[in-house]
C-alpha cells in the first residue's frame, strides 16, 4: 500500500507531507500515470488524519498539474509528471552577470565575521529596539487603517503619500531649507534615494567626490555604479578644506556626496561656519552636492545646525536625502529626496520602473506617528539614551585603551585610531574573546585607514561597553608584544 510507509511529523503541515509523499511515490515510479488515488475519506482513515488535510493536499496537487479529478470517479495521476522524474540542474553560479558579481564582491555582510550568541558586538549601529515606541506606532497604525485602509492598501503614487510629503515640506522648512521650486520623492530609506540619484545622474567612469572615510553602503553603491571615488580626508572637525578645494579644482567631479552630521564612521558633526565654506567651494567649482542628512535629529545641544541644503536657498545645487532610520525605525524603510522639481520628476519615473512606489501603508503610518506628536518625545528620549552611552564609552576608552584619537559627537558610535595596530588583526584576536567591531578599512574608499575602527554603541549595555573595551585593550597589548 503506497501510504503504509508515510511517517507524519509534527513540524510540517499534514497536507504538505501528504503532497510530498504522493510526489515522491510518482517520482519513484510506484504510482504510474492515470492510476487512481484513494478516495479522500478512505485515505484520511488509513493514515489517521482529518479529511480536510487530504482534500487540501489533493487540491494543491491538482493546481500543480500533478493529479486530475473526474467528478464521480475520483482523483488520478496525470501523465505529465515527467518534470518530477529526473534532475534539472542549471548552474546558476556560472550565469550571474557583472553587476551581480560586483554586488556579491562588495557585500561585506556576507564576508565579515558574523554575530554569535554571547558576543559583545560593537559592529551594529542600528537603533536599540527597546527604544521603539511600539504603543504609539500601534495607535498610528490603527488610526490610519481605520481612516483610509481602502486607499493605503491599494497601489499608490511613485512620488509618495501626499500627507507625508506635505509634512516633510514643513519639516524641512523648519530646518531652514527653502523648498520653493523643489519637490520630494519618498524612497525606501536613504539607500534607495542615493541609488535613484546615482542611476539617473551619473555614468560609469564619472568622478564622484566624497569624504574619506564614509558610509560603507554608499561606497558600495558608488562602486556598483562604476564611479571613480575621489576621497577627501577628514580631520577632527570634518572634511579637510584644502584638500577639498584641490580636488574640486583638479578633477572633473560630476557630483559630491557628503554627510555633514554624524559622518559614518567618524561621527563628526561639521559646524555651521565650516558648512558654509564647504557649500561655497562646491558652488564656486559648480559641482552639485548630494547631502546625506540621515541623522541630523540627533544633534544633542539642541542648537540646530543648518544642513547644506539651507545655504542653497532658492538655488538647486544641493540634493538632500533624509531618513528616519536611526532616530525612529529602520524597518519601515521610509526616506526622502528633496531636490529641484526637474530632478524629482526624473527620479519619479526611474522609481516607477524599479519598484512602483514605497509602501503606502508604511508611509501613512509614519505620517500618523509624526503628526501625533510622538516623534518629538521619541527624539528627546533617543538623544538622552545615546548620549549617556556615548559619554560612558569615552570614559572607558580613556581608562582602558587610550587611543591615538577618538572622534564623534554624541552619536550611536565612536571612531578610534590605535597607533601601530592593524584593526583586522585586532578583530581576529577580539573575536576569539567574543568581541567584535567594524574595522576601519570598510569605510575607506581604498580600503586603507587600517589602524582605525568603529565601535557601535546603540545595541549594547553599559556593562558590555566596559567589558568589551577592556577586552579590546587587552588584545591591543597582546598584539603589541607579539
Ligand atoms: C551615513 C548614513 N546614511 C544613511 C543611513 C540610513 O540609511 P537607510 O535610511 O537606507 O536605512 C545610514 C545608516 O546607517 C548611514 O550610516
TrEMBL record:
Record's keyword annotation contains Transcription regulation: yes
HTH gntR-type domain sequence ranges: 12-80
Recorded GO MF terms: DNA binding; DNA-binding transcription factor activity; pyridoxal phosphate binding; transaminase activity
A Pfam family reported for this protein in Swiss-Prot or TrEMBL: Aminotran_1_2
The entry's keywords: Aminotransferase, DNA-binding, Pyridoxal phosphate, Transcription, Transcription regulation, Transferase
Entry keyword Transcription: yes
CDD domains referenced in this protein's UniProt entry, alphabetically: AAT_like, WHTH_GntR
Database matches in InterPro entries: Aminotransferase_I/II_large, HTH_trans_reg/aminotransferase, PyrdxlP-dep_Trfase, PyrdxlP-dep_Trfase_major, PyrdxlP-dep_Trfase_small, Tscrpt_reg_HTH_GntR, WH-like_DNA-bd_sf, WH_DNA-bd_sf
Family: In the C-terminal section; belongs to the class-I pyridoxal-phosphate-dependent aminotransferase family.
Name by which UniProt lists this protein: PLP-dependent aminotransferase family protein
Source organism of the structure: Clostridium lentum
Organism placement in taxonomy: Bacteria, Bacillati, Bacillota, Clostridia, Eubacteriales
